[in-house]
């Protein structure tokens, strides 16, 4: 992989207000609440100044793989983990270098195979799943099934994840869901009446665009001794991640409220259904994330964070059910921290990028809570930086209770919390 030269550990402005965030492999697929590459890039460089002999990096909530791409660009051996099968596919697409000749052959393969004439002759089955015809017009479903058939015949195994990422983005753009949003809302009838997407054209255009992104990130196919590894797994276990292996951790955990804030499950569902995952998985992403199923499992009363406990008590006075949901999230985050102590080397540095959401009018200071939870597991705080989030695909006010007319501020700042694991 092409190594990023001389990345500054002290950027003049952590906001990166005018930065191009869709560069190189980062152009591949949208994803909710992604860390922008500039933050990951400079944060990794900042950690390496403090720990210049660092070789390995872990991102236990890797999402679309932003941190992994940037870690590999700086010569680190990176591992990523995520519980969302779509995130894992996107991250693998971003972190798998493909020879330029293979990209050219794949472009030709799809260009020659995905024609209107051939599609009219296609008689293959169209995947069935609940409410398919609610979210997709019949001609769109036929075209998507035709593309899937072509992907199955792709003669380049290393390109499978890239092709699936392109397909997933195409699904998002040709569905009846309002575009540019992460939650599933059907277009109003007047828009649907005039909505006639070019499904094959969308796929081909995105394949070319993503291929160029890979060429930009991997121009000469130089790379670390090991390209990034991406594991589909639970951060509370990390059973497929090696122990005592990592010098650095850079990550951004989920916010803990997919229903009203960052809709990972809704964002992923249609793509996963088209890719053939079982309904339990395709529709169950939110239930498996941190804080999922809070009312179906026992939770301990004690949380090793005075700040977190006080915040939960405030919410409990207003809504006990919501308080339990918040408690479940921080309990699961604490479980992840416990597991991370087995994966990090003594002296390892951990950087968390977090934002403080609001529940029932109570601001949850996650930066302070994660610091206190970490300290209970043998970490020492080094610094807590703050950056403004210049633009977000979330409104400045949302409905945190899912009640019409009740609004609360969404997150406009992030904290970059760095700690050292004393072991």
Automatic annotation (TrEMBL):
<keyword id="KW-0680">Restriction system</keyword>
<feature type="domain" description="Ribosomal RNA large subunit methyltransferase K/L-like methyltransferase">
    <location>
        <begin position="31"/>
        <end position="77"/>
    </location>
</feature>
<comment type="similarity">
    <text>Belongs to the N(4)/N(6)-methyltransferase family. N(4) subfamily.</text>
</comment>
<keyword id="KW-0808">Transferase</keyword>
<dbReference type="InterPro" id="IPR017985">
    <property type="entry name" value="MeTrfase_CN4_CS"/>
</dbReference>
<dbReference type="Pfam" id="PF01170">
    <property type="entry name" value="UPF0020"/>
</dbReference>
<dbReference type="GO" id="GO:0003677">
    <property type="term" value="F:DNA binding"/>
</dbReference>
<protein>
    <recommendedName>
        <fullName>site-specific DNA-methyltransferase (cytosine-N(4)-specific)</fullName>
        <ecNumber>2.1.1.113</ecNumber>
    </recommendedName>
</protein>
<dbReference type="GO" id="GO:0032259">
    <property type="term" value="P:methylation"/>
</dbReference>
<keyword id="KW-0949">S-adenosyl-L-methionine</keyword>
<dbReference type="InterPro" id="IPR029063">
    <property type="entry name" value="SAM-dependent_MTases_sf"/>
</dbReference>
<dbReference type="InterPro" id="IPR000241">
    <property type="entry name" value="RlmKL-like_Mtase"/>
</dbReference>
<dbReference type="GO" id="GO:0009307">
    <property type="term" value="P:DNA restriction-modification system"/>
</dbReference>
<keyword id="KW-0489">Methyltransferase</keyword>
<dbReference type="GO" id="GO:0015667">
    <property type="term" value="F:site-specific DNA-methyltransferase (cytosine-N4-specific) activity"/>
</dbReference>
